[in-house]
Amino acid sequence: MVRVLVLGLGLVLLFATQACTTLQQKPPAAASDSAAETPVPMVLPFPEPEPVARELDEDLIYSYLVGEIGANRGDLRLAQSHYQHAAILAQDAYAAERATRIALHLKDYPAGLAAVRRWVEFAPNDVTARQLAAVLFLRNQQIDAAGEQLDALVKIADARDLDGFLQAAGVLSAEPDRAGAEQLMQGLHERHPDDVRSLYALAVMETAHQRFAEAEARLRAVITEDPAWEQPRVLLSRVLVAQNQREQARTLLNEGVRLYPDSVLLRTTYSRLLVDLADYPAALEQFRELHRLTPDDDEIAFGYAMLATQQENWDEARPLWQELRGVPDRRDEASYYLAQVEEENGNDDLAIGLFRSVGGTELKIDAVMRTAQILGRTGRLAEARDTLQRARIANPGRAADLYVAETQIVQEYGDPDDALALYEAAIAAFPNSQDLLYNRALFVVELGDFGWMERDLRRLLEEDPDYADALNALGYTLADRNERLDEAFAYISRALKLRPDSPAVLDSMGWVLYRQGDLVKAASYLRRALALTQDDEIAAHLGEVLWVSGQRADAQAVWREGLAHSPDSDKIRAVIERLQAGSR
């Protein structure tokens, strides 16, 4: 089978870092040249109170100190009451804020309301004060007063060039009283029916509450009214995905990218969806364009390089990784993946040099293992083993993994007796390593020692009865030997319950059913397995079942497709020769 590149984790990390928030404000209109030259001073909607001059008398100092000490020691009741007292004495917004937040934490909503009233009084243009005032009025069942705070929030946010509607949706979306929160947002929208931001904010809240159908309708209305606004399209795509409408989301984002080709946000969101859909060629095309739009964005370049490598576009991937090697935070990752590119292109010594340049990151040990694999494959087995042994001494926490790597290389490129001796030493050093015991079981059965294999697998199952790989291996081997088929079926059935979507286990189930004579069910399981992965052994099995069932044209079609994916498959060619020879 074609070797799979080690890319999954990197792709996951990339697209996690590429996530874009939907709660961004609507971009302001471009300022004119004259406006840029003459900044307009901010005019806040509410008059600020005159500062109150008050001496720090003993009572005030005591209240502040006790409030701080109580908060630090976890005596929040004491802290809240003294901050409240300090706010009254000094008319201080800081003390009122502390009293408000502590009361909210304590779920003492009447005390919180009293504190936040003072906070708003002392800092009437504070966005957070208005947000928490709305929350506390809601929790004290004063809906109209909460609505007034939201109206004030919108005015203040507009003056500060923020989106007050999103500020409101953000704080209310987490409220336990969902009905009350939605009533407040609905009322805010109804008081601002001509401001499309209010409709979008309402959709944001409905999305947070998983009311996807309502959110979808509102977002489509927002897009109709303001098609150039990116965030509603992004949020609508996520709403569609949440409703299992991935293709509709794809169509939506594809249209958005077509209409607004320079939108980095839309392209990034679209590329992430394409990765989720496993349409890597289309995702690569989007990252190609993203890199053109943002040539200095290392995250975009990294994603582009990963996808180009995954698609085996070596000439495209190589310069990207070379460039990323110049970014200090990316050097080790870029060296590791560039080494893979060079290895795949037959540049073994260059690949070894790059793998060896990988520094002290999580990839270092993997790079050592890849180096050893190349050395073993190119006839330098002693050097490969020495590389792994040195790494084992230097990295005792990964010693078991390095033993596994060494056993695999020795059994593939060395003498079987040396491999068995190495397994004995490794298992003696790490008797609880499932990987070592499992791998030895598979190795000894290749050498023809089924009894040894069964002892190792049973030992694993005694320690872990739900070890699916061991169950599957034992069941499949029995089925393949055409022995103890009921027992084999039981093992494989247990493995299938643990891993219902595993191609290997589905293949085993199909094979044991074939051995038991149930050709229809056998073909069904094998088709499911082959649909999940184009494995040549599964293709060989399915073709055999179809041939024996009398569906010889279908069998030949399966084998042809299997050979197209794996032209050198001995498994497919062997079964073809055996069955065709038997039919003469």
Low-confidence stretches: 1-36
Biggest sheet, in brief?
A: none
Output the CATH homologous superfamily of one domain.
Tetratricopeptide repeat domain
Distance between the termini: 31 Å
> How many helices does DSSP assign?
33
Description:
- With 584 residues, the chain is mainly α.
- The chain has a domain at 478-582: Serine Threonine Protein Phosphatase 5, Tetratricopeptide repeat (Alpha Horseshoe), CATH 1.25.40.
- It is built from 33 helices and no strands.
- It is elongated and about 100 Å long.
- It starts with 7 loop residues before the first helix and ends with a helix.
- The relative contact order is 0.04.
In short:
This protein has a domain at 478-582: Alpha Horseshoe (Serine Threonine Protein Phosphatase 5, Tetratricopeptide repeat), CATH 1.25.40. The protein is elongated.
Topology overview:
Elements: H1 8-17, H2 33-37, H3 58-73, H4 76-90, H5 93-106, H6 109-122, H7 127-139, H8 143-159, H9 164-172, H10 178-191, H11 196-208, H12 212-225, H13 230-242, H14 246-259, H15 264-276, H16 280-293, H17 298-310, H18 314-324, H19 331-344, H20 348-356, H21 363-377, H22 381-394, H23 399-413, H24 416-429, H25 434-446, H26 450-463, H27 468-480, H28 485-498, H29 503-516, H30 519-532, H31 536-548, H32 552-565, H33 570-582
Helix pairs in contact: 1-17, 3-4, 4-5, 5-6, 6-7, 7-8, 7-9, 8-9, 8-10, 9-10, 9-11, 10-11, 11-12, 12-13, 13-14, 14-15, 15-16, 16-17, 17-18, 18-19, 19-20, 19-21, 20-21, 21-22, 21-23, 22-23, 23-24, 23-25, 24-25, 25-26, 26-27, 27-28, 27-29, 28-29, 29-30, 29-31, 30-31, 31-32, 31-33
